[in-house]
Amino acid sequence: xxxxxxxxxxxxxxxxxxxxxxxxxxxxxxxxxxxxxxxxxxxxxxxxxxxxxxxxxxxxxxxxxxxxxxxxxxxxxxxxxxxxxxxxxxxxxxxxxxxxxxxxxxxxxxxxxxxxxxxxxxxxxxxxxxxxxxxxxxxxxxxxxxxxxxxxxxxxxxxxxxxxxxxxxxxxxxxxxxxxxxxxxxxxxxxxxxxxxxxxxxxxxxxxxxxxxxxxxxxxxxxxxxxxxxxxxxxxxxxxxxxxxxxxxxxxxxxxxxxxxxxxxxxxxxxxxxxxxxxxxxxxxxxxxxxxxxxxxxxxxxxxxxxxxxxxxxxxxxxxxxxxxxxxxxxxxxxxxxxxxxxxxxxxxxxxxxxxxxxxxxxxxxxxxx
Length: 370
Prior knowledge:
- The chain has 370 residues and is an alpha/beta fold.
- It has helices spanning 3-14, 23-32, 74-87, 95-105, 134-141, 158-168, 182-186, 198-204, 220-224, 276-279, 291-294, 300-316, 325-332, 340-352, 357-367, and strands at residues 112-115, 123-126, 148-151, 173-176, 188-190, 193-195, 209-212, 235-237, 243-245, 253-257, 283-286.
- A hairpin with a 5-residue loop joins strand 8 (235-237) and strand 9 (243-245).
């Protein structure tokens, strides 16, 4: 098959835009798709003569750049530095110098110091970048007996925010998933012993935050067995005849969900409709994707690509894929892969998820390959 036929096959049968592709690009993609390329040969590029190693350009001292209320504008800072270098007839700034400037001016998220209103007025340092609702969530949970219902898309970091709140409160965290049976809440009586539940261990502790993830995947009937626990000073009785009364000041609760508890949605069609009396016991806060947090998961190029992919999935209405910041972090974790072809395949594996081959090809055609 000659080059023209290969090109037409890629365009018509695989919906690929090849207008700006080189012959080598066309043959490489055809081989990947199993197309016969025996009649076509990509021209070999002539070897370029070795260029003498360019002298390393010194990085000029950066000029004084005003800092506004939003911090330093990285592009403006680099532009000002280059302009100053040219004005002083300094050598041209090479790529390495530009990278150093970006490292110098790029804002680095720092841990925040949060003052929590404990009796001892202690100050707690929170590790990492916090979600935009963190302060409001902490304010609510400090207004006893408030408890939180964080809802939002999968991978938006709801559980991580709950762990940061526990850290701010200087409390251990007791985590559990969706509650499907009463045994998960009350524990089980086995021959010759009683097996305690996470909730029992939590109530027996001096203090601690209980985190129940995916509460909208729970069995509403199982939640009824511990309904009183969600009230301040509510009591819970266990199969070994022990009863514990909860104090919201020392034992706060946070639950997370993908929905508001009003039933299934198109993307989360396995979620239950929770009892209105249960939902009324919580302050509900939407916890969506947060750019500030996602920016820390991967290099800027990867973050931009994932967001473009996510937006295109939504625009085309492909419901077989939910592209979350969790996937951004997965791609960020591939930075140590040196073989670029292997890295590209792994990135595609992370993003493709439940999409068909045609859907995935359509997305790559729209936004380009990574």
